[in-house]
Amino acid sequence: MATNVFFELDRLRDHLKIRGVDDQTINIIISRARSEIEAAVSARGQEAIDEAVEVGAQKESADFINQLRFDTLNFEVVTESGQLNFDEPPRPMLPFLLKNAKPIKNGSGVYKVIPVGKPSVKPSFATNIVDEQRRISAERMENAKARARVIAPVGSQIFKTATSKQDPQQKWVQPAKEKDFTEEVEAINQNLRSSLDDTIRDIIRTYEDMY
């Protein structure tokens, strides 16, 4: 459970009263402590979001990255939907690919020549999606909305032929992808809360030690 900031500030206020500090000075100290805590929470929260973005980039899940936000009340990284499993089932692509296809000369079906990237060429997903999400995260801190971009593959292409004679369940099927982020997010949040708990208590302790 995250440290209760209001409780810690009230505890600091009580400590200062017991020490005989006047109300005006107490209010100033509480305000400064609150500002330091808010700044620490914001900074550490953004770091945690960046960590989650890196995890999302590793599994190439723009959907997960787009939903990330920082819950300042509970000190945790969450998604807008509350979902952490973004597994992708197999996707038959042949019907989509054969749109506007040309008829085979013997009339036995249709075909379409499809440009595809070399197997060794991968999208520059991680670099671009992380940079983009950092921009988005900054806007979200100001309650703005944005969408992450995935950069398309670059480089040489090869060509393959899709035809209506092919089995749509066997050919041109994007394989299932496991994109469950439950364990990673739980680890990030555990470290985040522990770090913030220590930081908040250190801030409170610093002001307590002054009196």
Can you offer a commentary on this structure?
The strands form 3 sheets. The chain has a 3-stranded antiparallel sheet, with no helix packed on it. The protein has 211 residues and is α+β, with helices and mostly antiparallel strands. It is built from 6 helices and 7 strands; from the N terminus they run αααβββαββαββα. The two termini are 29 Å apart. Helix 2 (23-58) runs antiparallel to helix 5 and helix 2 (23-58) runs antiparallel to helix 6. The protein has a domain at 5-88 and 178-209.
Shape descriptor: rod-shaped
| Beta-strand residue percentage | 5-15%
Low-confidence stretches: 120-124, 141-154
Order of helices and strands: HHHEEEHEEHEEH
Helix content: 40-55%
Order of strands in the sheet with the most strands? 4-5-6
Largest sheet: 3 strands, antiparallel
Q: Would you report the number of β strands?
A: 7
**End-to-end distance:** 29 Å
